[in-house]
Design brief:
Elements (H helix, E strand, L loop, with lengths): L12 H11 L5 H4 L3 H33 L5 H18 L2 H16 L1 H19 L5 H30 L4 H30 L6 H11 L1 H5 L13
Helix pairs in contact: 3-4, 3-6, 3-7, 3-8, 3-9, 4-7, 5-6, 5-7, 6-7, 6-9, 7-8
Length: 234
Amino acid sequence: MGSAHSPPEGYTVAGATAARVSHEGSYTPAQVLRTPQLYLLWLMLFLNVVAGILIVSNAVPIIRELISKGVSAPNAIKALTGTAISGYAIVAVCNGLGRFFWGAVSDRLGRNTAYALIYGAQVIIFFLLSGFHSVPLVLFAFAVILACYGGGFGTMPSFNADYFGTRYLGQNYGYIITAWGVGGLVGPYIAGAVKDKTGSFAGALMPMAIMLLVAIVLPFITKKPRALTAPAVA
């Protein structure tokens, strides 16, 4: 047993240095609020949530609308819609799988590139989705959108750590994750407004594609903030 002045068992100078260095340059929550990067990351997550929540919150009526355009017999529409809805319950796991997939992509290609690809994949799907009327195509499109929706959440915590450090990771990410709540309100509101105006939820698909196409610029203009020269003090 060591004396009162001995370091704890397993303590090494190298380990202490590594722990100290890992927190150097971390932004405090107060400092993060003064960086434009926080608001750009917030906007990136917000737009991805708005697009994804359109499908998550209105999957059944969108499926019904798309399938009904491909067949004319009421019984066939009902049967195919039921099949598609059952398939959607399975496809929904892509929300979770997308977090792992896009997180791995961001580790290899970088956070900015991954987020641009998340937007780009959805742009293509949203542009094409109104022309998909078969069950396999509709479910494939939903799988891609849900994977990208989950991928936004799988990538953003690493974005936060890369930009602002790890010491205040939970608090700093707390600011960014509020985009989920706001997007969860805005997305269904947009879908409802489109439904009221056009009589169809599918009418929101093209506007979403255009929104995401414009959003692709965000990952390219969002740059890592300058490194702090000394450990941040709370």
